[in-house]
Design brief:
By secondary structure, the protein is α/β, with parallel strands linked by helices. Helices cover 38% and strands 20% of the residues. It comes from Vineibacter terrae.
Length: 218
């Protein structure tokens, strides 16, 4: 399994596992890793589609790419993917320069997998962006023991209002989970260059994630 690794200029810092969208470890994911590295973190985005096709690197700019992305999404083995992410988490902890503490963040499919990693791994903190499918795995939250943020786009076409309510209601009694809603935003409001990108909302969400990781990974 490959991936993209970015390190801070200092050479050391806490780790951030960046889980891809359905477009592979593309420029958006690499730029996110570079941004974390610029803020003092060792960032790794693993190639979770490697079991189907290695090195997927596509965009959201054409219908053909969307078709390819959805085909990969449908063919993704969730259980094996989570196993791969646990291996990636261990690899990042052991990477030269990583302090050993690691936060997990991800987008869309990666947002869902971030939630699942917080339920089924020992990652110190998590921040999931517009995860799709969390409503079907609310029982897994019994294993969620470390601080986790869910960034929910309230106009998300893939996560309608009733689903959002189910997520909020299902997690409201878990003291480790904080849900932030973004009232005017659609899915992928943090995908730079995407149709629904909102710079202000993304900056707000990223600031909340950074604040969490500063505290949890110190």
């Amino acid at each position: 399994m490959g991936g993209y690794l970015a390190k801070p200029k200092s050479g050391s810092g806490p780790g951030v596992l960046v889980i891809q969208e359905i477009f592979g470890v593309n420029k958006v994911m690499r730029d996110i890793c570079d941004s974390w590295a610029a803020q003092g973190y060792v960032a790794l985005s693993p190639d979770i589609f490697w079991r189907q096709e290695e090195g997927v690197d596509i965009t959201d700019q054409s219908q053909d790419e969307w078709n390819q992305a959805f085909a990969l999404y449908k063919g993704f083995d969730q259980a094996k993917g989570i196993d791969d992410l646990k291996v990636s988490l261990a690899f990042l902890r052991a990477t030269a320069g990583c302090t050993g503490k690691v936060g997990v963040t991800g987008y869309c499919l990666g947002g869902f997998l971030t939630y699942m990693m917080m339920c089924h791994s020992d990652a110190e903190a998590g921040a999931a962006y517009y995860g799709v499918g969390i409503d079907g795995k609310l029982d897994d939250a019994k294993g969620l023991q470390n601080p986790t943020i869910l960034h929910i786009a309230e106009k998300d076409g893939f996560v309608p209002p009733d689903t959002q309510k189910k997520i909020r209601d299902g997690l409201k009694d878990n003291p480790h989970v904080t849900v932030h809603g973004y009232a005017n935003d659609d899915h992928a409001f943090c995908r730079v260059g995407g149709q629904h990108y909102n710079e202000a909302s993304c900056k707000l969400a990223n600031g909340r994630t950074l604040d969490l990781f500063k505290k949890a990974l110190a």
